[in-house]
Design brief:
Blueprint (H helix, E strand, L loop, with lengths): L3 H18 L8 E4 L3 H15 L6 E4 L2 H10 L14 E4 L3 E2 L5 E2 L6 H9 L4 E6 L12 E5 L4 H10 L4 E3 L17 E5 L7 H9 L4 E4 L1 E2 L5 E6 L2 E5 L6 E2 L8
Parallel strand pairs: 1-2, 1-3, 3-6, 6-12
Antiparallel strand pairs: 4-5, 5-11, 7-9, 7-10, 8-9, 12-13, 13-14
C-alpha cells in the first residue's frame, strides 16, 4: 500500500507532466485525448487554456469518461471520418520501459486508446516516475474479450501461463467489468515477459481477444515527471531533461 507521501508525490508528478505537455499543443490541432488520471489533468489544463483564448483545438477522446471530461472542460469534440489523421494524441501509461514499450488499459480503454494512437502523427505519453520499469510485466496485462469467447480465451491463456483473472465491476463486484464497447476485461498476471513482441503475436492469434494492452512501437515520446524535473524519453535513446527541447521531440 502506498504511503500518503508517495501518493501525493505521484499526484504532483502527474500534474507536472500534464502541464508540460500543454506546451506542445499548437493552435488548430486535432488532438486525441487519453484516459486515466494523468490524462484527466491534461484535459482539464487544455480546457483552461482554451477558455483563456490561448488555444483552439478539436478533439477525439479514448473513452466515454474522457469525452465527458472534455465537454465539461469546454473542449469541442468531433466525429472522426475516413482519412482523419490526428496531429497529436496525449495519453498515459500503466508501465513503460526505456524503449517506450507500454502496458496500457488499466482503466479499460485499451481498444480506443490503440485506435487513436495508430491514427495519430505523434503519440505523447505522460507518466509519473513510478510507471518506468526495467522490464514490462509487473502491472497486469489487460485484454478486451468478446463475452461469448471468454471460456475458450481463458483456456488458451492458461496454456500461456497467464494467471488470468476476469476483472470485476467496481460498483457491482458480482458482475464483470465492461468496456465502452460492451466487452469484458481479463487481466493477465505474467509478472514479466522478456519478449513482448512474441507475446503480442500470441495474444493476437486468440479468437475472441479484441485487443491487448501491449503498445509496441506506438509511442513517439514520453514525458516522465521525476520530482520537480521532467525527462523526455525517446525509443532507443537515453532520457534527457525537458530543458533541452524547445519543440516536440
Amino acid at each position: 500500500m502506498q504511503s500518503p507521501t508517495s501518493s501525493q508525490q505521484q499526484d504532483q508528478e502527474k500534474k507536472l507532466a500534464a502541464a508540460t505537455a500543454l506546451h506542445w499543443v499548437k493552435d488548430g490541432m486535432q488532438v486525441g485525448l487519453g484516459s486515466g488520471s494523468t490524462a484527466a489533468y491534461f484535459i482539464s489544463l487544455l480546457g483552461e487554456a482554451m477558455g483563456a483564448g490561448q488555444l483552439r483545438v478539436q478533439a477525439v477522446a479514448t473513452s466515454l469518461v474522457s469525452e465527458a471530461l472534455a465537454r465539461q472542460a469546454g473542449i469541442p469534440l468531433f466525429e472522426p471520418r475516413k482519412g482523419t489523421r490526428l496531429d497529436l494524441t496525449v495519453d498515459g501509461a500503466d508501465e513503460l520501459d526505456a524503449d517506450l514499450r507500454l502496458i496500457k488499459g488499466g482503466g479499460g480503454a485499451l481498444l480506443r486508446e490503440k485506435i487513436l494512437a495508430t491514427a495519430s502523427r505523434h503519440v505523447l505519453i505522460l507518466a509519473d516516475s513510478s510507471k518506468v520499469v526495467p522490464q514490462l510485466g509487473r502491472f497486469p496485462l489487460p485484454l478486451e474479450v468478446v463475452p461469448f469467447a471468454l471460456p475458450w480465451v481463458l483456456d488458451t491463456l492458461e496454456k500461456l501461463q497467464a494467471n488470468s483473472v476476469l476483472r470485476s465491476d467496481r460498483q457491482n463486484p458480482t458482475e464483470p467489468a465492461r468496456t465502452d464497447q460492451g466487452n469484458v476485461l481479463v487481466d493477465c498476471h505474467f509478472n514479466q515477459f522478456p519478449d513482448p513482441a512474441q507475446l503480442a503475436r500470441q495474444l493476437e492469434a486468440i479468437p475472441g481477444v479484441v485487443e491487448h494492452g501491449l503498445f509496441l512501437g506506438v509511442a513517439h515520446t514520453a514525458l516522465v515527471a521525476q520530482g520537480e524535473q521532467v525527462l523526455v524519453y525517446k525509443p532507443g535513446e537515453a532520457p534527457r531533461n525537458i530543458a533541452e527541447f524547445t519543440e516536440l521531440p
